[in-house]
Amino acid sequence: MKKRKLLQKLLSSPKNVRFSEATACAEMFGFQLSRIKGSHHIYTHHEVRELVNLQDVNGWAKPYQIKQLLSIIEKYNLKMEDKK
Q1: pLDDT tens digits for 18-50?
Q2: What is the DSSP secondary-structure string of 16-82?
């Protein structure tokens, strides 16, 4: 899925987001997987003091965690990276 389309999907319906889409979005904005403990995938960003926690629940991401990710992206005015 294209980057802009994926971001639009997350913005329009955070309740219907696959875990793989959530992690792809986090990585698009420069977050890196720091550690995994159980179903918790913890992401960090070199410009952000907050951690992003994403959980894989039968292939789906939790809606409140998607909202938190989007909130952090907006709060720190993060831009999509052009690496991929």
Answers
A1: 999 999 999 999 999 999 999 999 999 999 999
A2: S-BHHHHHHHHHHTT-EEEEEETTEEEEEETTEEEEEEEE-BTTB--HHHHHHHHHHHHHTT-----
